[in-house]
Amino acid sequence: MDKVQQLFQKGLELHQKGQVDLARGMYEEILKIQPENADALHLLGVVAYQTQRHRNAVDLIDRAITLFPYNAAFYSNRGLALSELNEFDAAVDSYNRAIAIKPDYLEAYYNRGLAQQELKQWDSAIASHDIVITINPDSPEAFFNRGIALYEMKQWADALASYDQAISLNPEYAEAYSNRGLALHELKQFDAAIASYNRAIVINPDYVEALSNRGLALHELKQFDAAVASYDRAIALRPDYAEAFSNRGNALQKLKQFDAAVASYDQAIAFRPDYAEAFSNRAQALQEFKLFDAAIASYNQAIAVRPDYAEAFSNRGNALQELNDFDAAIASYDQAIALRPDYAEAFFNRGGLLQKLKQFNEAIASYDQAIAVRPDLAAAFFNRGNAFQELNDFNAAVASYDQAVALMPDNAEAFSNRGNALQELNDFDAAVASYDQAVAVRPDYAEAFSNRGNAFQKLKKFDEAIASYDLAIAIEPEYADAYWNKSLALLLLGNFINGWELYHWRYNTKDYSPTRRNFRQPLWLGHDSIAGKTILLHSEQGLGDTIQFCRYVKLVVDQGAQVILEAEPPLVGLLKQIDGVAEIVAKGRLLPRFDYHCPLLSLPLAFNTTIETIPSSRKYLSADTEKVTEWACRLGEKTKPRIGLVWSGSATHCDDRNRSLSLESLMACLPDDFQYVSLQKEVREIDQAALRSEPGLLHCGDLLRDFNETAALCELMDLVISVDTSVAHLSAALGKPTWILLPFLPDWRWLLDRNDSPWYDNVTLYRQESRGGWQLVLKKVHDDLSTQAWK
């Protein structure tokens, strides 16, 4: 044996024993003898690789390849060194050269697969692992690495199967159990994932990644205490484990331990100052503390670390919204969307803010974009339905609620709001069914029971309505809206004693509470003596209500009180002439001193009014004689009976679409031989053309500056025909014959199933017999006018 062979043999022996420095010496001695010995150069390169001198290893093996380019091992080991240098493309090329020389080179295929995974060439990596498995079906590592590639391709079930094969070959393969847990997590099989992590931890009790990932699965199962405990074990083993601290903070947030959560995020950030997720999650915990400025600062730190962090921009928008910095919030949502045009939550949050700002069309557009990205986003359909309701597009609202409940059948609010929209469409049976679905989902849903009562009331099913209100009250004994709604049903049924008592709840409802007058003087409801006292009677609700209930002034004066009457400015001139009023004040002006106060519509309660004891059903207001004379001059000599007309009320009234009608439909029913005078102050755009086409209809709207003027004009009418609005009350209070046209379900004051009114002796009521059925009402008006039944 010559000296070179001896040196090779000695070097290989030392190498196999791990004495690489001594082996290197042998290889270097060979090169002194044979400077172009390719094997020695290669082995010297292997030693350089093993001693972490990877660039040197590549250079030495390249020299060997130059001398002998047909050795597969040279290329394979060169690939290992290149991989350590993160030069994965070059490494793959080197493995390919090894395989070209030796097509069954198992190790080269295996390492090529690992390099391809680093390049995220998952399909290629799987192909490499499959060849390894074909050559050596008993390689657990090949199945394991194949599982990793499949997992990265989101082929969770296939990855799971590959990990299972690795485990079948090596039942103590802790890493395979841990990664198997990750695949099960993605498949949302959280219990199975935890079992897999537990097996990994039994095999390797110090397996910190398995402990941390087990915490994530426990979090998904809402076992937050157990999740924190698992993170704590991981942290005990690796005190600088930033991810475990951050995930621990997430679990603590769910436990509403926000201070502990912030502390956990702070520890994560201390170990990883560039940990954008920890900054962002920390900001969310600070938001829970309502520390919005601090939260925004934390989001800004997350964004500084990761300028493309769309979630942080979106969540920052939520915090800015809490500070009412709406422009900045919108800008933050827009930045999130610019970074991630498919970011449904950012579109959703942006829509919510636009809806809050009452920019409903823009909000709907934002919800539509969220839905386009995520057609299963039930909350976007729900909010979009709410926005459509605000725009009075009730058909679109119902359609949107339908999509919301199809995606989330346990969304009680969507069923309830859908019921509200169906009510607006006068589809009350369907509304009741929708409320029934709401309370089936949430049996303690007081608002749905109350709204269901309203739908029953619209159907004139009063027993069912009252029972539904009572259920709402039983669930929520202080639910003002349910008491108020029940009072309206009782009053409509003529049950005044119980109705007035509950009617006083109006001031605690969401609609009326803003109008409540919080005087320091006590409210008078008939219990205290007011003889010798000054009492303020103040108006509320509509102008017609003030006209109807100012009749109670005389009863209050009879109690020995001095009365100050506060009324809307257009009524002041008219109401000055009421007997017993010491002073009348226009609403909004400074009030004089008084001892008690009472809203006008609480006076029936104060006097325990029943149908039989309604005061002053005859004429109790008068027109100004001078103004009557002025209007007589304007109208000229009367040649025909004069009939005053009012066909619509305030467009903002909650029931306007049911109580108002068009001028065209009214005029079509009126016979000739009468002079018709419009008592309508304002004419809607939809009626303008009809008004111009009726030269025989005298319109005086521009001259009706206040109710004094309207009263004078009414005084000159032989008959007033009006829908349920303030002029109807005015005409009736003046003692004029007044025909009032009522919808199918009228306001409570007109009661049910009678053509007269206990409030006004001179009123005749014309009621719809079916919902929206004005045709028969107007025919009856025509027939009665034609027969002069009004005289």
CATH class category label of the domain at 625-786: Alpha Beta
The dominant shape is: elongated
User: How is the biggest beta sheet arranged?
Assistant: 6 strands, parallel
Question: Strands across the major sheet, in which order?
Answer: 7-6-5-8-9-10
**Which fold name corresponds to the CATH topology of the domain at 625-786?**
Rossmann fold
Strand percentage:
5-15%
Cα radius of gyration in angstroms? 43 Å
**Weakly predicted, low-confidence segments:** none
| DSSP summary: helix tally | 41
Question: How many strands appear in the DSSP assignment?
Answer: 10
Fold blueprint:
Blueprint: H1 3-16, H2 20-33, H3 38-50, H4 54-67, H5 72-84, H6 88-101, H7 106-118, H8 122-135, H9 140-152, H10 156-169, H11 174-186, H12 190-203, H13 208-220, H14 224-237, H15 242-254, H16 258-271, H17 276-288, H18 292-305, H19 310-322, H20 326-339, H21 344-356, H22 360-373, H23 378-390, H24 394-407, H25 412-424, H26 428-441, H27 446-458, H28 462-475, H29 480-492, H30 496-503, E1 534-538, H31 543-549, H32 553-557, E2 562-567, H33 569-575, E3 581-586, E4 596-599, H34 603-606, H35 625-635, E5 642-646, H36 656-659, H37 663-669, E6 675-678, H38 685-692, E7 697-699, H39 707-715, E8 719-723, H40 726-733, E9 738-742, E10 763-767, H41 774-786
Parallel strand pairs: 1-2, 1-4, 2-3, 5-6, 5-8, 6-7, 8-9, 9-10
Helix pairs in contact: 1-2, 2-3, 3-4, 3-5, 4-5, 5-6, 5-7, 6-7, 7-8, 7-9, 8-9, 9-10, 9-11, 10-11, 11-12, 11-13, 12-13, 13-14, 13-15, 14-15, 15-16, 15-17, 16-17, 17-18, 17-19, 18-19, 19-20, 19-21, 20-21, 21-22, 21-23, 22-23, 23-24, 23-25, 24-25, 25-26, 25-27, 26-27, 27-28, 27-29, ...
